[in-house]
Write a structure and sequence with these properties.
homodimer, transferase (chains A, B), alpha/beta, MoeA_linker/N_sf (chains A, B), molybdenum (chains A, B), Molybdopterin biosynthesis moea protein, domain 2, EC 2.10.1.1 (chains A, B), Molybdopterin molybdenumtransferase (chains A, B), 6-stranded mixed β-sheet, 7 helices
């Protein structure tokens, strides 16, 4: 939590993300029943296991007949409705009353809609306007056996679940949910406020990070609060490694370079191979990524706002990489400034604000007055961040800017 | 599943939604631990239970001192770091080495950053450039006891969870998840394809609708497939009512006016009070809504694509109303047509298509060639719908249109 920024290597966000990318291979797979598949990431190429419809079926309510016979009155043999077994053949001079979804019997080559037929007893007359070969959905029209329906890497939604069911799949191979261990560091942190236990703040980072991991498809494991003591941190880290079942460790706090910021040196003692130790962004500079003993670790800042902004930038793509969908891009959009912005310093800068609809219908962004990094209430009130490049000049109201809407990263 | 459109009352989508709105009051509430709160809807007004920070704390690493003494060398009394108990007073002529987050002791009114101080042994000299009253975060600066932090009706995300933790809330009152019973009707439907059991299609609607209910915050209860027989449907509906714990019943199939479409007459026999029996939209005309015995019921079409499009239009806002967040609007956006569109008929029309980035950076929509309503593969391939008004003329490539991106209704 120190303020010093010594050390030469401070990559831009894009460069930091590129370094992270190669170090987060997709996790293994498991088979799940269709009921459990929504939200998971497909891990196989799938094809239809059957023809849909399995037989030719009527696409409308009407009469099934041979078109060659349509000129003269037809004798109606009976009724076929959806779900009935395939009926006997329609012989010359006959027809079948048929309802949408019912199997078209052998012999029939046309369904005439009921509006274009006149029935009296078992006699049916086809009216002018009827057309040959209409209103029959052929076997396999919607899905043909062997036709590809899903690619690996697809995040499954309700539409895919419906398609899998229709195609005869009762289960599907998916990537298991990435397991993410979360720990907070800091002597000042507490789960429960008690004045007699020293000057404390309640730990907001772990609850928020657990919620993010869950919303973004992972399974959080809560490692609690570790005090700012090398031995305590070292044994906490060693325990994660020994457990052997964690895909990513996320820490918050202690990742800066102050006298009591222990994450970097403690990791170093465990053989840490860093991808980066800080990032040219604000807030969120004190973000690190690397691995030790084969375990990827993402170190987030201690300040709550900085931790969450950095999670949006790094934890979200880390989880999507582990889950097998590739790197989730930061969801940048354009908006018009409702309020002026100051010049930015030497880092890419995120400022919290609120979105509204402008007079022209487009999105309009108003920056919040208080941008204090410990101010979680401001982040909760905001619904977007403006993303400003390093060394940007002041921006006036009316200028277009790049924003990140929180509802584009659901769960944030 | 009949094709006839008799009956005068066929409201537009907006009118149908308005009629639905008053019939879906928010469900009851429960208290959940913070770990279970993300994704739930807050059901109370909440205020901060404590000041954050609880004491004045250092906002930077440096030295805490009385500004009046800054002109002469100071004796350093010791070190305070985050989490340390509140130290004794800083008396005249003394200072305290202090780190970010540590309590500022009584007497000190300024923190001078370490870059503007020179220490030799326990002597500290303040350098030019230091300013009075800086770098102290006063008690309650971030959150003041009693300050409002959350309103009822807020869908809680990770940011809110963090704020609740920081404000001293270990649990929160939320609406319970709406319980949604789902049944499919149709003799042709099966869970498992078997040629000897009549002409069947696999039921894709229930699996997809269950996934939607879950993605949109509800708890699905699967009532299975009911054949097209009045007695079977009637007793299935009566059982839902008797169970007494369902907030919404969703049916699919049998909601049209064909000879074997039984949902409307069977509901009528149970005292159905309809809000609407069909809607001026395509696909999805055969959508009904109302209540019987106090139970809201949404009847969706049997065709898979029609059922899912209608679910996007009606089930999503139904769930958000039950959940207490108010009516979720259909997420309409603008895009440019990449392909021409035909004139529409007398109903609001949804066509499936794919989105791409145009040369100017905006969204470009290309309609899919096959718009068959039983074609779930086409819906799964699509990533948006174009929404065209009734009786719209043909539209040329390059024209702006209204679209609904599926990723704006996550889970669809």
């Amino acid at each position: 939590m120190g303020a010093s920024t010594k050390g030469a290597d401070m990559p831009e966000i894009a460069e930091a993300l590129s370094r992270m990318e190669g170090m987060l291979p997709a996790v293994g797979t498991e088979r799940v029943a269709l009921d459990k598949a929504a939200g998971r990431v497909c891990a196989e190429s799938l094809a239809a296991r059957l023809d849909a419809p399995p037989f030719a079926v009527a696409a409308m309510d009407g009469y099934a007949l041979r078109w060659a016979d349509a000129g003269a009155p037809l004798r109606c043999l009976g009724t076929a409705r959806a779900g009935d077994p395939l009926g006997g053949p329609v012989s010359p001079g006959t027809c079948l009353r048929i309802f949408t979804g019912a199997p078209v019997p052998p012999g029939a080559d046309t369904v005439v809609v009921q509006e274009l037929a006149e029935a009296a007893g078992d006699r049916v007359r086809i009216l002018p306007g009827a057309e040959p070969h209409r209103h029959i959905r052929a076997a396999g029209d919607n899905l043909r056996t062997g036709a590809p329906i899903l690619r690996p890497g697809t995040r499954l939604t309700a539409r895919h679940v419906g398609l899998l069911a229709a195609a005869g799949h009762a289960e599907v191979a998916v990537h298991r949910r990435p397991r993410v261990a979360i720990l907070s560091t800091g002597n000042e942190l507490s789960e429960r406020f008690a004045v007699d236990r020293g000057a404390q703040i309640l730990d907001a980072n772990r609850p928020a990070l657990k919620a993010l991991v869950q919303a973004w498809g992972g399974v959080p494991r809560d490692l609690g609060i570790v005090p700012d003591e090398p031995d305590a941190l070292s044994s906490a880290l060693a325990r994660v490694l020994d457990a052997g079942d964690i895909d990513l460790l996320v820490t918050s706090g202690g990742a800066s370079v102050g006298d009591f910021d222990l994450v970097c040196p403690t990791l170093a003692a465990l053989g840490f191979a860093p991808a980066f130790r800080k990032v040219r962004m604000r807030p969120g500079k004190a973000t690190l990524f690397g691995q030790f003993g084969g375990l990827p670790v993402l170190g987030l800042p201690g300040n709550a706002v900085a931790a969450l902004v950095s999670a949006l930038v790094f934890l979200r793509p880390a989880l999507s990489l582990l889950a097998g969908t590739g790197r989730a891009a930061l969801p940048e959009e354009r908006a018009i400034l409702a309020t002026p912005l100051p010049a930015t310093g030497p880092r890419t800068t995120f400022l919290r604000g609120r979105l509204d609809r402008g007079p022209a219908g487009g999105a309009v962004f108003a920056v919040l007055a208080d941008q204090d990094n410990a101010m979680l209430s401001g982040l909760a009130e905001a619904d977007a961040l403006v993303l400003r490049p390093a060394d940007a000049p002041p921006a006036a109201a009316g200028e277009p800017v790049s924003i990140i809407r929180f509802d584009r990263a659901p769960g944030f």
